[in-house]
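Table S2 (text version). Query chain:
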Amino acid sequence: MVSGREEVVPRERYLASARWRAELAARAGLPTTPSEELYDVVIVGAGPAGLTAAVYAASEGLRTLVCERHAPGGQAGTSSRIENYPGFPDGVGGAELAAGTYRQARRLGAEFLIGVEIESAHPESDQLIDLTLTSGAKLRGRSGVIATGVAYRQLSAQGVEQFAGRGVHYGSATDAAPRYSGAHVVVVGGANSAGQDSARMV
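Corresponding structure-token output:
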């Protein structure tokens, strides 16, 4: 049985980390504070689903805000080739797809916050949602779209946690292969991402 104390501590630690990330983003000059107090649509996540939702919402003239804790593109942005996205019969690079959709959404008027997450959300009696961001900003939304993407299944090998980000990576950026030239590399998994990463490493 998990006590209330044990449940609270991980959440508080996560929020402290998320607030630190938002402060770091702000100091780096990234947008972390919304320009409006009220939005028609607030989208959480700027992967392919969130970016597409932003394009559709903004193209209909809705005031659209996208909150992304890392960078627009999500997991697809690190994929060397996407073969199953509509409109690209010959496939398209993940970074190219993400960058193009991001530019399109911004051109249509969608606003993006980077390094920011939703800290709390409370529905009010006037049918609006009061939101607090990890940057400390407060705003209201008429509706929301949660497009937070996937979480990698962690490798269960003993002691692997201490090497995460320092030799053990979940997913591989397209420019990672040259750094491992001449080294021994093990790819765990057999899905399309594993195949793409293996091909880049050869």
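Notes on Table S2: The chain has a mean pLDDT of 87. The two ends are 48 Å apart (CA to CA).
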